[in-house]
Amino acid sequence: MVRVKPFAALRPPKTFAASVAAPPYDVLDSREALRMAGEKSLLHITRPEIDFDPIADEHSQAAYDKAVSNFRLWQERGWLLRDRTPCYYVYAQTMGDRTQYGLVLCAHVEDYESGVIKKHELTRKDKEDDRMIHVRIQNANIEPVFFSYRDNREIDGIVSEAASRPPEYKFTDENGFGHEFWVIDDAATVGRIGEIFADRVDAFYVADGHHRTAAAARVGAEKRAQNPAHTGEEEYNWFMAVCFPESQLRIMDYNRVVKDLNGLSREQFLSALEEDFTVLDAGTEPRRPDALHNFSMYLAGRWYSLTAREGRYDDSDPIGVLDVTVLSRLVLDKILGIKDLRTDKRIDFIGGIRGLEELSGRVDSGSAAVAFALYPVSMKQLLDIADSGTIMPPKTTWFEPKLRSGLAIHTLDGHK
């Protein structure tokens, strides 16, 4: 079972929430962050290189020092204020006609170390190290991680009751996504939330933010080792997460574009595909995959339907059943010679939020030779893979909306 606790967040006053809230650090490059960042934006803390002219190296000591000074300045100016008591928070995101409700809480670093918090992706040490620096220098979890858990009716009821009241924050972001936020500070409810998770929720699943989760756990372990008087009650044993029930989440497609056809002509490439796929010309209009093991491909101005032939996949294997595995094995590796998705510079990955037009645009512009649209992974597949202890191939899941950073911050020194 998982351990959770409330925390006294640093967060913006109502009037500043929309101005402070910002996209996650890793969905923008420095120039995009500079264009988006208003005076109060958290981007000045999460992407501090934008405060230099010219833009500084994001990994430079000057940028790290600026992050620390900006975090302190935001508190001095009253753009981030401390709640008086430990609370849980409800964070709702609306995209189109769908709203998902997450509980903002602190999870325990030892639950990650022991595998109670389950992952489905490998992490890279260099990215973990970078995130560790930010947690360490700020002594805080500035940005939350994104978890899921198996549905629980009582938690749903508590969240619904909180969300029936007027929200503390309500705003629409630049993408048209809605964000709402409520505070749960009733002592009885706060106590009951901890009991439910301890008694009835057997695992958290990392949906998005594997590197932030690993970094937070490593900082907690580091502080534990450095403290000879460690008791287990210290705030550094905990890190901030937004946790959503599995039934409310949807995974979007995560698509691929490849820069060349590995020396093949268009006709040779299509012929090679016929060995493992039924290939149908679908015309010039954008086409989405309509089922598992069906792919859409854009090549030389036309869309194609590719359906993997029987025996080319293993539906009894949680990894073998994934379309990212099928495509990687039968097309990217076998035909196009792409052996390592993490390091090969000939392939790029496009989140489904950008639409099929982004795929065709890459090919039409000449920056890619071929594009593939995949059928989305299901939450059941993600949870099954995490439960089995296996790891998904790189760039398999894409979640939207992204969590907005800055609505709540967890400091590792508690109330100080």
How would you portray this structure in words?
The chain is α+β, with helices and mostly antiparallel strands. The protein has 13 helices and 21 strands. It has helices spanning 17-20, 30-36, 43-46, 61-76, 109-114, 125-138, 153-163, 187-200, 210-226, 266-273, 323-333, 356-365, 379-388; strands spanning 4-5, 10-11, 81-82, 88-95, 98-108, 117-118, 140-141, 145-149, 169-172, 178-184, 204-208, 238-245, 251-252, 254-258, 277-283, 294-299, 302-308, 347-351, 370-373, 398-399, 410-411. Strand 16 and strand 17 form a beta hairpin. The longest helix is centred in the middle third of the chain and has 17 residues, at 210-226.
Feature tags:
416 residues, alpha+beta, nine-stranded mixed sheet, six-stranded antiparallel sheet, 13 helices
In a nutshell, what does this entry contain?
With about 425 residues, this protein is of the alpha+beta class. It is built from 13 helices and 21 strands. The model has no long low-confidence stretch (mean pLDDT about 95).
